[in-house]
DNA starvation/stationary phase protection protein
Amino acid sequence: MTKSPITSPLSDSDRKSTGAVLQTTLVDLIDLSLIAKQAHWNVVGPHFRSAHLQLDELVSTARQYTDEVAERANAIGVSPNGKARTVVESSGLPDYPDNWQSVEATVAAIVATLGAVIARVRKGIDETDKSDLVTQDLLIALAAELEKQHWMWQAQTA
Amino acid sequence: MTKSPITSPLSDSDRKSTGAVLQTTLVDLIDLSLIAKQAHWNVVGPHFRSAHLQLDELVSTARQYTDEVAERANAIGVSPNGKARTVVESSGLPDYPDNWQSVEATVAAIVATLGAVIARVRKGIDETDKSDLVTQDLLIALAAELEKQHWMWQAQTA
Amino acid sequence: MTKSPITSPLSDSDRKSTGAVLQTTLVDLIDLSLIAKQAHWNVVGPHFRSAHLQLDELVSTARQYTDEVAERANAIGVSPNGKARTVVESSGLPDYPDNWQSVEATVAAIVATLGAVIARVRKGIDETDKSDLVTQDLLIALAAELEKQHWMWQAQTA
Amino acid sequence: MTKSPITSPLSDSDRKSTGAVLQTTLVDLIDLSLIAKQAHWNVVGPHFRSAHLQLDELVSTARQYTDEVAERANAIGVSPNGKARTVVESSGLPDYPDNWQSVEATVAAIVATLGAVIARVRKGIDETDKSDLVTQDLLIALAAELEKQHWMWQAQTA
Amino acid sequence: MTKSPITSPLSDSDRKSTGAVLQTTLVDLIDLSLIAKQAHWNVVGPHFRSAHLQLDELVSTARQYTDEVAERANAIGVSPNGKARTVVESSGLPDYPDNWQSVEATVAAIVATLGAVIARVRKGIDETDKSDLVTQDLLIALAAELEKQHWMWQAQTA
Amino acid sequence: MTKSPITSPLSDSDRKSTGAVLQTTLVDLIDLSLIAKQAHWNVVGPHFRSAHLQLDELVSTARQYTDEVAERANAIGVSPNGKARTVVESSGLPDYPDNWQSVEATVAAIVATLGAVIARVRKGIDETDKSDLVTQDLLIALAAELEKQHWMWQAQTA
Amino acid sequence: MTKSPITSPLSDSDRKSTGAVLQTTLVDLIDLSLIAKQAHWNVVGPHFRSAHLQLDELVSTARQYTDEVAERANAIGVSPNGKARTVVESSGLPDYPDNWQSVEATVAAIVATLGAVIARVRKGIDETDKSDLVTQDLLIALAAELEKQHWMWQAQTA
Amino acid sequence: MTKSPITSPLSDSDRKSTGAVLQTTLVDLIDLSLIAKQAHWNVVGPHFRSAHLQLDELVSTARQYTDEVAERANAIGVSPNGKARTVVESSGLPDYPDNWQSVEATVAAIVATLGAVIARVRKGIDETDKSDLVTQDLLIALAAELEKQHWMWQAQTA
Amino acid sequence: MTKSPITSPLSDSDRKSTGAVLQTTLVDLIDLSLIAKQAHWNVVGPHFRSAHLQLDELVSTARQYTDEVAERANAIGVSPNGKARTVVESSGLPDYPDNWQSVEATVAAIVATLGAVIARVRKGIDETDKSDLVTQDLLIALAAELEKQHWMWQAQTA
Amino acid sequence: MTKSPITSPLSDSDRKSTGAVLQTTLVDLIDLSLIAKQAHWNVVGPHFRSAHLQLDELVSTARQYTDEVAERANAIGVSPNGKARTVVESSGLPDYPDNWQSVEATVAAIVATLGAVIARVRKGIDETDKSDLVTQDLLIALAAELEKQHWMWQAQTA
Amino acid sequence: MTKSPITSPLSDSDRKSTGAVLQTTLVDLIDLSLIAKQAHWNVVGPHFRSAHLQLDELVSTARQYTDEVAERANAIGVSPNGKARTVVESSGLPDYPDNWQSVEATVAAIVATLGAVIARVRKGIDETDKSDLVTQDLLIALAAELEKQHWMWQAQTA
Amino acid sequence: MTKSPITSPLSDSDRKSTGAVLQTTLVDLIDLSLIAKQAHWNVVGPHFRSAHLQLDELVSTARQYTDEVAERANAIGVSPNGKARTVVESSGLPDYPDNWQSVEATVAAIVATLGAVIARVRKGIDETDKSDLVTQDLLIALAAELEKQHWMWQAQTA
């Protein structure tokens, strides 16, 4: 069923470009949620508990926006793809190390990961400025949340 | 940090075999949660709403046990690995089709997917019978939940 | 009391054009809430329960935004008018049939009704782009919600 | 689908007369809910806040009984009709003025409106005494609530 | 202890006739709750989930009124009897088939079962009109709820 | 302000007779709430805790209906009077003994008190049958609750 | 049972004087709760709703401390007496007028009533300073709450 | 539909023996819930309130496990049968007496009833040890709860 | 620590201009929260209760956005400054009078205060249109809320 | 770390004497919580359920104040000691018997235990009157709660 | 309106001295709430998250007592003044540094700030011992809370 | 009352050996709860807040299982003994140091304490494998929880 059963409120080209932004963001957010869970389970060190809890808040944010982004894709008549293979093939995030990690290494990796997602979301905000203000508004809300958490992770490195 | 910072309540060989079962189950459950979300977003047809909601309950179950399984691995001194690449490389679940799917196709795919997970979890129950009753008890609870949902998905095919 | 007791944060012409958009949207949303309730009560057929419940979510959305839109009109110094007669005289929505309706007929009518509202809300988003970004932001949130539900109703026709 | 798909627990003539009472009450309650919302948005004056809040309680009551009355019609095998046009054509309530209204004018209009609804509901209680005690019980509960609120609005005029 | 330890607010003959109505209703409601659970567990087919959930609402209603009816019997000085054997010996409801049932067969059986209970409750309303208005009021509330659910089950057959 | 600022939905004679029933019930209920609190504080003996808790449920019932009865009086245009002196002068309940009381004496006194209130409420149900069905419905609900609690207090004397 | 079944943590003379203060306060608080309810039901005028709601907060405070004061009496081995007749015979509060009262008259009466209670509670604080600090602490908490509400009622007279 | 639409995770013989255990337990639990309700309504005597409340906790436990046991039967591909007639024909519990019962008689009967259920559940635990650990785990949880309540009922006979 | 430990998603000049807007808004909102509390405590007159409660809703809004604005400053790498001295030195709001104030004077002062804040926030919306859409979106949400409350305060002056 | 890392708001001698009172109370409360739990588990007899539940309320009170007392010690710069050995060595409470106890024996033992704790807490209130009013206030609140429960246990012996 | 519209339960001199204590405390608490928020936003370093969260609990305490202290001033007939300028002119707290601060510097500053507030509150407890026990009780509760948090901040410096 | 008033579902020897395991576990868990509270109050150092909170979760776990273990003892007809003296005499846990402890020392002590409890619980799991699967299941659940927390405490030492 590759022909869309959902009509789009957008013109065909806007649908295509907006759909591409949403698919990119979807994949990044799923990867972010898996990385944050991986970190949540594997962090060790004196600040373990604080980091362990804060990582679950990040998982929670990633999951909430994953859903909103995928449903927005549907709303403009584009099928979202969030399977594991798709994530591996198209995520824009840096790899996360295997095995237990110290809190310091964990914080550094999460700061870098968030920096990468934010840069891509901000690009999406620019790209949707002409094609779909509704999608742009969703990306702005996502950027606001990610940048807030980015500050909170960076604050620990000072 | 590949040397475990966590002591194990198990003997070394029990730790190894139990850890392998937990890692296998972890990967399957993450894959299950991604597949169920994929289906949740892409299902279409007259029973859309029912299937859409039921799929989110499956996501919820998969996520809850993902966490419990990963934390059990830590509790026996084994680092869990739940990254996207690990899922792609070692999941035991069949691939899920891309694009929108009819409710019938969705139900059939979920029934098959659950059947595959259940078979592997039951194998894990056997394997941990001697090595760790605490892990076995977790797998029994997981099987109970998955088999219950398996019935509910099969019931729709009658 | 036709002279406004409420000062406006907008210039007079922006107040007038924005007020017109809000009044139009208000009437559409009240009509939508009455139509969705009518459908909620009169739907019959094998999928009755699913449609019955989903229609109440639509009523709920329509009522929530009815209130926000009317209060936004007040906030810019314009008296909102949501009486039954005003709705009949100025709603932009197609008529909804009398008597019980099958689920299929109900779904088709709701898809069409939502399509009509969305088109008008999107027009309002364009019209307020220069006159009032605060009102525009409200309409964008409304469009996001309506387009999401539009997808969910259309998904049942596939 | 004008032939009822729902069997009635009442004889045919009781079904007809009871159905007429319910349809009349349904329309009055929808009109009441729209009038109370209109007043909620357009009231001004020193007691604004009190009246604004109290009007929403009236909306809430009207909406709750609208639903119960429409569902009771279905339960006796009669299709309820609550569309905007039906309300305009058959409501028994006096018109409500356009534009902002002082608290005094608002209170007076609501007292009159409630008086009109109550008189009609009491007539419905008489008419259903022989035809359907279940419907009568619903109308008695409605009268109890409306007469209580009628007192509270009148109390402000003393 | 067959002599009542509870005095009755009713005359002896009213107590006897009202008590008989309550005992009849009690048995019907217990049987209804067991049938609805049986159906809840054994329904299969594409609408499984909807029917499965709706049946539990019926169980819930039956149980709530079972309790209220039994406690009303006590309140008028009559010992209620709700044991399994009493239900088998005196229930007025048609038998429900063994084994899994399709959604269509389930809906048809529930519609018929509800029709039977409603007819008997309405008879009880007539019988208590002279003997005890308090009991009558309880039966009216029960009829209202059962007739509402009867509509919702019938609606699926249209 | 002895002339009523509240119009009545009843004829003048119905208003008068219904108002008298409501005022009588109001006074009885206030007295009941004070007696039940007195008993709640002064009960002693092995079953202290059970009786102490059950008495507070009776207080709660008495207070809830006190409010509903007084508000119903207002709704029919009659000023309710629930002052301490009015209670002493017109309550129909037997006096309650001073000082600590054994559980047995407490139960006996409460059973007798409830018997007295119920008899008077049942008389009110008869008297309002022609004058006001809305008030009658309130008294029926009150009788249902009091007779249920009467059973529960009597049950302890068996 | 006039001999106390409860031992006292106080000496006999402290028990007697503290008990007298608690009994006085108990009676005042019950009278206050009845007066505030009487006012709650009988207030009329443009500020009806505000006064009606605020009076119920006063009832709530009076009832809460009635219970705490009576239970404190028990805790020091004194039987509390809160029957209607006791209230009429020993309350220190001014009489409250019959029939509906304007908001202004209501506010004035409540301000005077609260003034009277506060003066007596403050006297109780002095009297228990030597006899029982635990009781004194309860009276201080009561004074704090009453004086706060006294301000809020007086504020309306400015 | 006697051929199972649900595949079983068990071998055929394990499915049969486990299914028999579940069906036996299902019937016992339904009977237990009806007996406990019967006792809840018919207990009288000085400890009425305590026993009345405690019996409802037993009903609650019985109902919860009734559902879990029936759903487990489905999960292994066996249709559960919980109709009144089935209960009468195959329950393993002793009969419960008709009419009101003293607290002592009630406690004794419940202690005996629980003893009978527990013995049969423990037998089921043995029988499923080889056939299905998932079902066994459910029966262990059920035994834990029933044995806890058994203690609490026996404690009253000391 | 005057060198920012937090990287900014904005260019340096955008960071500077956006940071200035946020700092200005932060100070205004803190001042608004202190003024609204001052008014909450010092308002007197017949509408005391309504104004007292409404002022706390304003405090609540001011505090919520104070936090969001300060955290947004951090998110773009700017240290927020909300100390008392900073507020006194840079707030753009008019002074609020000392001592008790009548409701009329209070309403007038709050209307003026809100007018001043809104004008400054709207200026901030313009200034951030090019520099940071995420910050602009936050200011738009703030303006929406303040303008809504501005209407509600003005409505009382009509 | 025997030198206090926490400064005290008290003079050294006040810190010492207040600290001694708090340490004494801490130990008594821990012992009380263990005794009440022991009684909760071992009580038997017809009033089992009532006593079992009431004992858990006592545990709850003891635990809540244990925490407040220990934290108060810290707040004045004194390290609290609540280890099992410390309790055995310095508790002022009488021993509680081993094995199951009848309700009568349980009530008697709890009444005696509470009497002992109260006497010691009252002594602490005297001792802190000059040294620390904040600690005294905490002990007064504790005495109020214990004396209330003491009454409720004694009431059962009448 | 400088003449108090609120009568005082205190003599004139007690009103004056108590009022001065309350005004002093009010200003300190507002300053404390602003400082704690400033610290909440500007803290950085490895323990960021812990300190960030703990600071918000301090804000919460400061705000709650700010309100209680201001309302107590009203209750004794004194107008509270909590404007920004008043805080700057009369706060007794040390200045808090601008810009981001390390966790260590933050903890040290908060410990010092709390020490200063506590000393002043303890002085207020002494000053109100003769003038108003109700106010003193409020200050004692405030001291208890501040000293508890003081311990928790100091504990981090050990 | 040393002869058990509670019958056992176990044979005499199974009852004895299982009872011994439960008594041992009970004592260990009470000691664990007291040690964790002691640590909760006496921990100091930069990670104070994290450790302080985490210790209360351990207290919570210890208390919950204390209750379940003691109630299980009763359920098999064995009287549990959890008095302070019994804990001191038979606990298997290492002593915990007096006075304030650094976070590092605290973490080390808790890790060791948990290690000791877990070893003993695992021994209990082995011992009950033949005697009582219901008790074994409870111990498995306890081990799962303790081993999870053991990991979280060890993680801080890495």
Remarks:
- The CA atoms of residues 129 and 136 of chain C lie 6 Å apart.
